[in-house]
Amino acid sequence: xxxxxxxxxxxxxxxxxxxxxxxxxxxxxxxxxxxxxxxxxxxxxxxxxxxxxxxxxxxxxxxxxxxxxxxxxxxxxxxxxxxxxxxxxxxxxxxxxxxxxxxxxxxxxxxxxxxxxxxxxxxxxxxxxxxxxxxxxxxxxxxxxxxxxxxxxxxxxxxxxxxxxxxxxxxxxxxxxxxxxxxxxxxxxxxxxxxxxxxxxxxxxxxxxxxxxxxxxxxxxxxxxxxxxxxxxxxxxxxxxxxxxxxxxxxxxxxxxxxxxxxxxxxxxxxxxxxxxxxxxxxxxxxxxxxxxxxxxxxxxxxxxxxxxxxxxxxxxxxxxxxxxxxxxxxxxxxxxxxxxxxxxxxxxxxxxxxxxxxxxxxxxxxxxxxxxxxxxxxxxxxxxxxxxxxxxxxxxxxxxxxxxxxxxxxxxxxxxxxxxxxxxxxxxxxxxxxxxxxxxxxxxxxxxxxxxxxxxxxxxxxxxxxxxxxxxxxxxxxxxxxxxxxxxxxxxxxxxxxxxxxxxxxxxxxxxxxxxxxxxxxxxxxxxxxxxxxxxxxxxxxxxxxxxxxxxxxxxxxxxxxxxxxxxxxxxxxxxxxxxxxxxxxxxxxxxxx
Length: 595
What we know:
The protein is 21% helix and 23% strand. By secondary structure, the protein is of the alpha+beta class. Strands 12-3-2-14-15-17 form a six-stranded mixed beta sheet. The longest helix is centred in the last third of the chain and has 21 residues, at 549-569.
């Protein structure tokens, strides 16, 4: 344990923003614009192709454990779907990291005691409350548009595979092709970290395996830097700027940055649900069998589309300022992350979409094309920029207050602060949230990067264009009801030098149960709140209006007059027809915006 702690602290120090030193820091800036819900791994190799270190890994993989959890790898997916190890999520990174000198692998996680790794429903007491995942038993792509987990969900967090399991041939069902199922035997090891968001519950009514208590230590043993490199999923279509202080142990010279990106449901004619449908077992019938239960065969959606795409940029550290970029991916990964080509990076070919106009955000365009010339850019800051640099001042007046809409106040809150001064200007604000005190830089790095006030788990983006002394207010999320939090924040300048850390505390209120706010007029026009058109309008409202101040004001204004307007048309079929006609382009727009 002491070795893990010391190694962790060393990695945290090398990757974090630096304090001002006698020698100016060597700063590398990475820029890109990701598509929505992108899972990302960033790593650096030397000129000879030796894996050196991971720079960033999104939370779903690094913290939520989607690559190493119970459930067969081909099991369907859905909104915060809890099962199915996604070994193809970032396979090039996973295999190259594991093949690096002195690298270790993680212990593999399986179901505690289910009949099959293809069972989505439990058959024994193997569960405890899950604060993040839920299992929405619905079919079709709509599952990913769920506005929230409808109720408290109890999941099987799993256990580690044992030597006894391996000896008796423990397996997961695996389809080589529809109706061609094999029993893929599982070994002891995984290339992905297990969940780090699940603490073992030992209270009455909890049935967690003792191994759950070891998940965090296993992740940190194998990847001591995992806390420092964990990043919230960046919001889609939003420019990202990540700065890295180049580690002192890496000499000046040529390096290569790799960025691997994957998204579920990125279908095209070569990769999609027709080619990779829901596994149905040997009989290819959705009635359950010895490999997959009825719930796994009839709920969620077949998530497998185009595989991961990898971008690479070579750059020079130590030779002064340098800027390099690429517009084209280096290659693509294995769809499954399993088999002979599991870690191979395939040469780009016509099977991967690469058309920003006709297929925006798909395939090669998961990092969006910028100015027609680049998707990934690396800038090395010249040493002269940082020679006389002074760290940003301390953030003043940090305050956390209750979110304005009571029905969401249990999961969102508002952060306000006064903009500090800095000689170079603020490049970013780092905000981290924890349920334990944040008293040191190490505590800060081990806390989670804050999420936006959104039902999608995406990074909080704090504006940096405000003048010193101005008050900035921003909503953030990812919170649980009736929970006490420490929220830490610091400013970072263009030399990746961080100012002092400030901390505020906040306790979320209990859940305020309310009825779902209806689309009054549209419901009267279409005759049922379950009409498909109502669903499109409701998703647009919840995902694009209620997530910002202006949108919430519009919704509040509509809710004030909507019932009266609805009453006026409800019994008049001609009026309802006119309203449906007027709503048609709005419904079409809502569907188009949500893809």
